Amino acid sequence: MRLNVSAPPFSTPRRPAPAVALTAVLVLVAGLLLLWPDRAGAAADPLISRDRPTTASSSESSALGPSNAVDASATTRWASAEGKDPQWI
Predict the structure, then answer these.
(1) Is the separation of the CB atoms in 78 and 89 below 8 Å?
(2) DSSP letters spanning the chain
(3) Residues in Cβ contact with 55 at an 8 Å cutoff, skipping those fewer than 6 apart
(4) Could you give the CA distance from residue 43 to residue 35 in angstroms, rounded to a whole number?
(5) Cβ distance 54 to 66 under 8 Å?
(6) Residue 85: band (very low, low, confident or very high) from pLDDT cuts 50, 70, 90
(7) Is the separation of the CB atoms in 58 and 87 below 8 Å?
């Protein structure tokens, strides 16, 4: 006995929908960056409080005064006196 088995018709593999959507989003973002290249690496808006006069309810020491809170330095900070609540700057 002989079975007649035919091969399935040729079909192209289908791409999954999430891959197509991801590709479309990446193309859109790349296009927007090409249109506005000056905004691609733009820094955040400047701080309006930078180097302004400051007052605080207390300071832990003279080296940790309130002016350190607005000097835009990552190595300085303001610290309130320990054990006194509430504190404000």
Answers:
(1) yes
(2) -----PPPPP-PPPPPHHHHHHHHHHHHHHHHHHH-HHHHTPPPPPPTTTT-----S--SSGGG-GGGGGS--TT----PPTT--S---
(3) 66, 89
(4) 18
(5) yes
(6) confident
(7) yes
Angle at 19 between CA 16 and CA 22, to 5 degrees: 150
Six token digits for residue 5: 């088995």
- The structure's pTM equals 0.45
Taking a C-beta distance cutoff of 8 angstroms, is the pair 59, 82 a contact? Answer: no
For the stretch 2-42, pLDDT in tens is 666 666 666 666 656 787 888 888 888 887 777 766 655 55
C-alpha 68/C-alpha 80 separation (Å) is 12
> pLDDT of 34-78, one tens digit each?
776 665 555 666 778 888 999 999 999 989 999 999 988 889 999
